[in-house]
Amino acid sequence: MNNIISLDKVSGILVCEAGCILENLDSFLLNEGFIMPLDLGAKGSCQIGGNVSTNAGGLRYVRYGSLHGSILGLEVVQANGTVLDMLGTIRKDSTGYDLKQLFIGSEGSLGIITKVSILTPPRLSSTNLAFLACKDFFSCQKLLSESKRKLGEVLSAFEFLDNQSMDMVLTYLDGVRNPLPPSVHNFYVLIETTGSNETHDKEKLEAFLLHSMESGLISDGVVAQDINQASSFWRIREGITEALMKAGAVYKYDLSLPVEKMYNLVEKMRIRLGQRAKVLGYGHLGDANLHLNISTPEYDDTVLAQIEPFVYEWTSSHRGSISAEHGLGLMKANKIHYSKSPETVELMISIKKLLDPNRILNPYKVLPHSLVQE
Amino acid sequence: MNNIISLDKVSGILVCEAGCILENLDSFLLNEGFIMPLDLGAKGSCQIGGNVSTNAGGLRYVRYGSLHGSILGLEVVQANGTVLDMLGTIRKDSTGYDLKQLFIGSEGSLGIITKVSILTPPRLSSTNLAFLACKDFFSCQKLLSESKRKLGEVLSAFEFLDNQSMDMVLTYLDGVRNPLPPSVHNFYVLIETTGSNETHDKEKLEAFLLHSMESGLISDGVVAQDINQASSFWRIREGITEALMKAGAVYKYDLSLPVEKMYNLVEKMRIRLGQRAKVLGYGHLGDANLHLNISTPEYDDTVLAQIEPFVYEWTSSHRGSISAEHGLGLMKANKIHYSKSPETVELMISIKKLLDPNRILNPYKVLPHSLVQE
């Protein structure tokens, strides 16, 4: 189940089996002049079928968008054993209902994805990465707005981490250093550009950084001079979860919120927990996706009681999503009502019963089990 | 039903009622620094609710992709009167099934869309348009491949028309002239770029055109010097349907096919019909979407018998779509099997019965009526 079936070199449409490792697909495409439209920290082990089933997001989302847009076709095995051939290899198709969409992000609970057809963007020749410091979260937001206009079409990633996340990485990961010493800054932003002309891209990025420095939006910054330095910048952002695992217990929340309210939740959580925990905020700012991670020496139910249900209630009251890119799985199946209306959940249950009447596909996941069983 | 509800000026997320006219939304956004991710010839009269229901494509598709990617939320009234609030205003959400996708492109047959939340891209400052001539369809394809790499991130439209389409426009529309006289070329291509830096964009486009001229991919070409000239170029491409209506009867097919096989169908149709009809090929080459239009002085069943079912059979045998961006409606409901497998159609029927058991929503459309009624 890990074979590449075809690549259309004019359109960039890749067809492969669901067991292909994301990084292997990216390496294959690189030689052919294309890239995968998604990139995750777990790329070395995750499989494309799982990426599609969980509607994975990741670092390239701000540029290439959702899998609901880039997946062109799927082959799915239904609960009754029927194979659904929806493996289209064309960009546009308006014949009947777009059923493949139901299987994107449904975590295997409606059918098992066995083959994937995906639109892959052309590989562009020039990539630049800047590591920047901002004094407050408002400056990060403002920087995002400005970058969408000034960097426009070349912006390919806009990530942020707070000072607490930086501390965690510096403390627990070997060989990592802060590219912007010796000052301590409150927030760090990574801006990546990808384009077809090195000179143009560098000019755009430099003009943007100069302007942002002059206007006070950024307090310091450095542009990676080579691929090794770029990797060392990414290591900081991508190493946060590894550092957290080394630090002890961790409570993880993957939330989507309106940008301007996003960091308020981190600050509120810090006040709630005081000295009992380290509260980290980082994530895909370009997509308004916050990773709120709470680190304690060991798991502690009284800490958990301070976090939940508060974190879900607060997110729900701001019309956010309690799972931006990681699905609901087992642990959050009963929490779906924080993000979805009762009528919507009811229709989900009806569809689950229609496609999997005997409840054999990934049981107890995604939807509240009590409702599915009724 | 034509009110704008909100616009988040950091993220570009627009929420509006379904009756808003597409062009009005685009004008509203223009002042706020954003644009709609879709643009159609019918923009002055079509409504966003209809655009979403029919999964409309159009001119910006090559850049901003499908509505399945850019629609963030919907409010839908179900057949039983229940209002489904799926009006999310966040980019990422992986809580349960993405039910709104079912209503995108289902032509009102599963529910009525009443409100729309959509991600709108930032308005970029620089737009350029080139009108080019190619000697054959292979050169058009090659030009597309090259433009995806060399123009990469600034490419915003790649349209083509054949010589027969140009003739039709020149004959039937007042005040339209061929920008590339006096030679007669076989194919014409419009390439639009949109970016954040006028100087960079012009440099990219000029270098690309020079290279394409030298390598013989294009035989002639002109870049619009101002907005009036750009409009006159677009008038040719967008005026084809109007010219066809003035010419007499027209048989229209909106097909999606692998790029390299796309124009073969036009040539085969010309041979089948001989002197009895004019056969035009044009469309969104960047998305492999062919508009095959056949013009006769008046409607003639013997001509139709030469066209159908051949056109559907040929498309089906090349795994194409018999409706790329116009839906199935009433006329093509019974033709769904040319593009979808029996198992997939069966599941569509089950979903139709689940959501609309009394068959009151847009009856006779999309799916074969005999199957829905069973």
Structural descriptors:
homodimer, alpha+beta, Alpha-Beta Plaits, 4 domains, seven-stranded antiparallel sheet, five-stranded antiparallel sheet
Question: What layout of secondary structure does this protein have?
Answer:
Two copies of one chain form a homodimer.
Chain A: E1 4-8, E2 13-17, H1 22-32, H2 48-53, H3 61-64, H4 67-70, E3 71-77, E4 83-86, H5 100-103, E5 112-119, E6 126-134, H6 137-150, E7 155-162, H7 163-172, E8 187-195, H8 198-214, E9 220-223, H9 227-238, H10 240-247, E10 249-256, H11 259-273, E11 278-284, E12 289-296, H12 301-307, H13 310-317, H14 342-355, H15 369-373
Antiparallel strand pairs in A: 1-2, 2-5, 3-4, 3-5, 6-8, 6-9, 7-8, 7-11, 10-12, 11-12
Structure explained in plain terms:
The structure is a homodimer of 374-residue chains. With 374 residues, chain A is an alpha+beta fold. Chain A folds into four domains: 4-119, Uridine Diphospho-n-acetylenolpyruvylglucosamine Reductase, domain 3 (2-Layer Sandwich); 126-240, Alpha-Beta Plaits (2-Layer Sandwich), CATH 3.30.70.2190; 248-327, Alpha-Beta Plaits; 342-373. In chain A, 37% of the residues lie in helices and 22% in strands. Chain A has 15 helices and twelve strands. Chain A has helices at 22-32, 48-53, 61-64, 67-70, 100-103, 137-150, 163-172, 198-214, 227-238, 240-247, 259-273, 301-307, 310-317, 342-355, 369-373, and strands spanning 4-8, 13-17, 71-77, 83-86, 112-119, 126-134, 155-162, 187-195, 220-223, 249-256, 278-284, 289-296. The first copy, chain A, has a seven-stranded antiparallel sheet, sandwiched between helices. Chain A has a five-stranded antiparallel sheet with strand order 1-2-5-3-4. In chain A, helix 7 packs across helix 10 (240-247). The longest helix of chain A is centred in the middle third of the chain and has 17 residues, at 198-214. Chain A is globular and about 60 Å long. The mean pLDDT of chain A is 95. Chains A, B: Keywords: FAD, Flavoprotein, Oxidoreductase. Chains A, B: Belongs to the FAD-binding oxidoreductase/transferase type 4 family. Chains A, B: One of its GO terms (molecular function) is (R)-2-hydroxyglutarate dehydrogenase activity. Chains A, B: Pfam families: FAD-oxidase_C, FAD_binding_4.
